[in-house]
Structures are given as C-alpha cells and as structure tokens.
Write a structure and sequence with these properties.
Blueprint: E1 3-4, E2 9-10, H1 25-36, H2 55-58, H3 64-99
Antiparallel strand pairs: 1-2
C-alpha cells in the first residue's frame, strides 16, 4: 500500500483512488502537493474571519515559541505604527490651529 506523508493517510485522501496512484516519485510529489492545498476553514480575525491563521496547526512544535514571539512583536509594531499615525495627525491638526 502507498502511504501519503503529507496527510498521513492510506490512499484515501484528496479523491485519489488506488488504481490512479502508483509508487512513482512524480505521482507521490503531485499527491503531496494536492494534499497540502486542501481548503481549510477561515478563522482570523474572530469578528469577521477572512483568512486562516493557526500557529498550533501549521508550525512545527520546536518553532512555535519563536513564531508566537514574532507574531506578538508584529502585533506590537502594528499597534505602535497606528499610535504614531494618530499622534502625528493630532500634532498636525493642533499645529494648524495655532498658525491661523
């Protein structure tokens, strides 16, 4: 029997049948790519999900801590950039008030 490394299944994944799939490397590569392209449920952001985001499912166990810290840093940077835009806008608005 042929074992798919990508989806951990025995010839039942991605609508492939036993007679179509052989043990050649090309067929295995095509099968692995088709298994990795499965459509999964969108779950981010929680208020109106429009994309899929799952560190616990997509990232290997040894790298999850680093990915979570990077994601937290990215969120902090985005919040900082937003706050910077707000403060610069407020400074611009108040400076125009004194010039008139």
């Amino acid at each position: 029997m042929f074992h798919c490394v990508q989806c951990k299944n025995w010839l039942r994944c991605c609508a492939w049948t036993r007679d179509r799939l052989t043990n050649s490397k090309v067929d295995h590569k095509v099968h692995s790519v088709s298994c990795s392209l499965r459509v999964q449920r969108k779950n981010w952001p929680r208020c109106c999900p429009f994309m899929r985001h799952s560190i616990s499912e997509d990232v290997p166990l040894g790298m999850r801590g680093m990915v979570r810290r990077g994601y937290f840093g990215w969120i902090l940077a985005a919040a900082g950039f937003f706050w910077n835009a707000v403060t610069i806008t407020m400074l611009y608005v108040t400076a125009l008030g004194f010039m008139v």
